[in-house]
Amino acid sequence: MSVDQVRERFHTHFAGADVDPKTAGDRWASLWDVGDFLPFDRGMPNPALEDILSKHQQIIGDCFVDSGSGGERRRKKALVPGCGRGYDVLLLASFGYDAYGLEVSETAVKRCVEEQEKKDPRYNVRNEAAGLGAIHFVKGDFFDKDPDWMKKSKYGFHPGGDSFDLIYDYTTDPNGAKFLSALPPALRPAWSERMAGLLSPRGNLICIEFPTYKDPSSGGPPYGLPSVVYMEHLSHPGEELPYGKDGHVQSNPLKRASPSGLERAAHWQPERTHDIGKGTDWISIWRHR
After folding, report:
1. Nearest by Cα to 63 from 162, 131, 159
2. CB atoms within 10 A of CB 143
3. DSSP string of 174-227?
């Protein structure tokens, strides 16, 4: 199947799912349930994430956080929404994070568990002193503001409350997508609001910005995502922002960030990433102000 044929099948499959998060989620779940069309699966974690975790601790810190005045420390809790087969969840756990992978499909969650049971050496403990973090795969709707989707898992919530110390948003394939690039522009305010709400006060949101090269007017998924989309929406979580007829978000440099807005703490191009994003992917790190 050619790239154009794959994109056309995606466009047909997601037609009419532009506004309702549940409709969009159901469409992604049906792809997993049928299982004959999964071109977004790269078969490995993104090398860019591995490099962030191993080479940029001066920005994101290590896998532990102080849990109280007594000097006690706990493992940081990491979330990968739209985790696919769970490759990045397993990678985060190998670096010592208690890692949660969220998917809308029970079938996808089963594929994650199967991947975990392979015990791939790529996910061996990276630091013996830190050890291996816990691994949790859960079915749920990212846009559900009641965090019951975590409490319904057999593990329940990790100590540290209903927020996450690290959230990873990424996309993996030129023909498919996971997470922001999988969402139509109408859902971006809800995406940014949910990200800000789930991120702990001292947490880091890691975004692999892709596809930055794609014309935003060409539709999706994946939808074109120039860096300004992240800047505008994460600075103004939940707000409806103006878009031009060309599909580009209209940036207003004079508009102040919202009180709940995140700030970009770092922005760079990765040395390594999936082949499709080489030379065009960007990494951005976001925190509460």
Report:
1. 131
2. 18
3. SS---SGGGS-GGGHHHHHHHHHHHEEEEEEEEEEE--TTS-GGG--SSPP--H
pLDDT reported for residue 184: 84
Segment 97-119, tens digit of pLDDT: 999 999 888 888 898 999 999 99
Nearest to 198 by CA among 171, 239, 160, 224: 160
Longest dimension (CA), the chain: 59
Report whether 63 contacts 75 (CB < 8 A).
yes
Distance CA 157, CA 149 (A): 10
What's the rounded Cα separation, in Å, for the pair 102 and 149? 9
230 close to 208: Cβ distance less than 8 angstroms:
no
Q: Is the pLDDT of residue 240 over 90?
A: yes
Residue 6 pLDDT more than 60? no
DSSP-based helix, strand, coil % in the chain, nearest 5: 35, 20, 45
Distance CA 88, CA 103 (A): 13
| Residue 137: its H or E element | strand 135-139
Q: Pick from 135, 103, 140: which is nearest to 119 by CA?
A: 135
C-beta separation of 159 from 74 below 8 A: yes
